[in-house]
Prior knowledge:
The chain is of the alpha+beta class. Helix content is 28%, strand content 27%. It has one domain: Alpha-Beta Complex (Peptide Deformylase), CATH 3.90.45.
Amino acid sequence: MAVRELKIYPDPVLREHCRQVENISEQIHSVLDDLAESMYAHKGIGLAAPQIGETIRIVVVDVEQKDGTPKLIELINPEITESSEACCDYEEGCLSFPGEAHMVTRPARVTLKAQDRQGDVIEFQAEGLLATALQHELDHLDGELFIDHLSRLKRSMIVRRMKKRAREATR
């Protein structure tokens, strides 16, 4: 297990469409472990593989760890199979957008299907913050970012700030 360096926008890997995991191997277990350790180290509630430079369909989420006992959810090849018409708003941040947090509207409840670390298919419903976190992380697997859910004006302001930050970091 290792804390991996996070990819920060505008890193192009964040816009890539991730490929399915065909074989759950020790390498995939290592990515799961690194994702979890990196998420906890950077004080996030979710992390997707492209955020550590891996373009495979893997995410980890733990919305309960801030309240005490960690409850890690590891998902391989996750997909949302159903989402509610009812929506809710949450202020979303992203470890790939340090210092940015904005209100995003998403379906309030989702049904998700994925594989666990053993390759077994799991299916469950999530609502509230967990549903939002799962949708946020699954978006990463398709190269979609939380800023894509914002108005054009807000998005352009964030993009400008992030590009400026990247330029300053290379000086």
